[in-house]
């Protein structure tokens, strides 16, 4: 059995850990031996102090490899900030992005390999030789794609509340997300470079050759949306024979964690489980939503995604067991949809 997932950072990684747990604990030998490929968002990537930082790739790698800081949900466990403190003492900007000492080693390995002419896929494989995440971890592309954000102008009186930001300019996604906490409205989000990017080796094959494709509850705009913006990925999802099953990142009209509502607002999409499914309407077969959202999501899907099967399930990844159950529900829905397809 081949399972392929498209994923962002923290939410994606958490779900993937549950997915691996559900597969490994399954009584079904096909699930137990399943090979999982993860296509990671790289549009959050940023160059800081000369280092190439890939937050979503690293969140998945550290989480599945046992190196994550469990409290924060990102970064290395038992981390220190000696280098960041020294950089701040030199007055070197930016100071708003946390780079831990151990984490910097990861970025050094990757940056050196990229400078030597290796691809991001190759650098990721090299880092995964240490972490053994238990999945084949692929960047969505080896080309540089970075989400940039057009900030709304910030009225003079409100600037102090937003770190002095005047707005009315374009910034890297990380500056909007981390420094401004997405509290300054975004007029537009653009995955710069996506239109000319090529899927990384193995990405399209992983979608085409999958038995199941899963969309974890990752940010629909700046995690999943950016993977879909790489030419060929969306077409592969439409064409694959595998059922495509997703998990809503929105419960009861709000993202579970983070500021995904600010991203949805920027593209004019309401923060509801049904509206998020609408973003995937052309390829999505099954959609897991919170029990209380099922009615709304079904009604929305009837208009935007006829044929979509919506199921209400406990959607909170509150602990490893709940997360594994959620992932198991996604696999079960996929199996059910594949069975229907065969019967038809
Ligand atoms: P990021 O790259 O670190 O922002 O992580 P992702 O894009 O992979 O995931 C972020 C999304 O995960 C957010 O939009 C959250 O709403 C969603 N999320 C976080 N925790 C949960 C949870 O327990 N259940 C569900 N359904 N979604 C969650
Ligand atoms: Ca991310």
Description:
By secondary structure, the protein is α/β, with parallel strands linked by helices. 40% of the residues lie in helices and 17% in strands. It has 14 helices and 14 strands. It has helices at 10-24, 29-32, 55-65, 82-89, 101-115, 120-131, 173-179, 203-208, 224-228, 233-239, 260-266, 273-279, 294-304, 320-343, and strands spanning 2-7, 35-40, 46-48, 51-53, 136-139, 146-151, 170-172, 186-192, 212-215, 244-247, 250-251, 254-255, 286-289, 309-312. The strands form four sheets. It has a seven-stranded parallel beta sheet, sandwiched between helices. Strands 7-6-8 form a three-stranded antiparallel beta sheet. It has a two-stranded antiparallel sheet with strand order 3-4. The longest helix has 24 residues, at 320-343. The chain is globular, with a radius of gyration of 20 Å. The two termini are 22 Å apart. The model has no long low-confidence stretch (mean pLDDT 97). Bound molecules: guanosine-5'-diphosphate and calcium ion (CA). Residues 8-9, 41, 44, 55-56, 223 line the site of calcium ion.
User: What is the H-and-E element order?
Assistant: EHHEEEHHHHEEEHEHEHHEEEHHEHEH
Assign the structural class, choosing from mainly alpha, mainly beta, alpha/beta, alpha+beta, or little secondary structure.
alpha/beta
Straight-line N-to-C gap: 22 Å
Strand content: 15-25%
Helix fraction bin: 40-55%
Q: Helical segment tally?
A: 14
Sequence of strands across the biggest β-sheet: 5-2-1-9-10-13-14
- Poorly predicted parts: none
Mean pLDDT: 97
| Morphology | globular
Q: Largest sheet, if any? A: 7 strands, parallel
Rg (C-alpha, Å) = 20 Å
The tally of strands reads 14
